[in-house]
Known about the structure:
This protein is mainly β. It has strands at residues 3-7, 11-12, 17-25, 46-53, 56-62, 72-78, 83-91, 96-105.
Amino acid sequence: MARTLLRVPSTAQKGEVIEIRTLIAHPMETGFRPGENGRMLPRDIIRRFTCLYNNRPVFEAELHPAIAANPYLTFTLRVEESGILAFTWKGDNGFSQTETRALSVA
């Protein structure tokens, strides 16, 4: 399991625009770099990031080999109701990780 850092406010006012920051520590490998034996190291990247708010998609990103290791993504979201934010990273070799955070809207 990769280490994630999420910066999400736990409370917000109805109609407020909040900033969400995500970072995942993942050993990205482009597939274009030779290893110690001279053979190309197999590609191992995070290919997709999705954020759901109460099971509705609010942000998606498709990532490519040029993305940096430990991808950092930030986006804004206008909140209208309390709920759960679910963050999912999917990658090569069956990699998948989901983290959730509760958000209380007053």
